[in-house]
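Example record for the data management plan.
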Amino acid sequence: MPSISRSFRMASSANDVWGAIFGATYVYPLAMPAHYDAILVTGRDGLTAGSIRQITYGYEIAGMVRRATEEITGVDHENRTIDLGFRNDDDIVGTFFRSASMVVKVDPNSVGDGPNSRGSNITWTLTYASDSNGSLNLKKFENATARGFETLDAYLMNA
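Corresponding structural encoding:
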């Protein structure tokens, strides 16, 4: 399956960024209201594998996708990695893709990850099976993701 991958350099520490990504259900609507109107947990706890989250996107994303249902398929705290799969009942799968999944990984930029750590790096990968009927502009989606991570970083730096 084709995929797109992008790295984002963050000023915030890897621990802070990982905490925000892991706790996206609660943090994203506060940190990125232009991207996320709401994230509702509809299965399990919203933090562990098997959890289902119903996402309603804000105006930054809503022009492309209004809602999505994602399932957390894996969480690795040691390596700061979360795997997400989009379900068939949303605007992403069925409208733009036959299937889609995402992996987000956070790494420190400097040696150590204590209070003196200087920044982190996010690697974001979207893997998908195309739907010829879909019209999602992948570059536009990728750029919106970049703006979201920039906004998250600014939020964390000011928290």
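Summary line stored alongside the record: The first strand starts at residue 3 and ends at 10.
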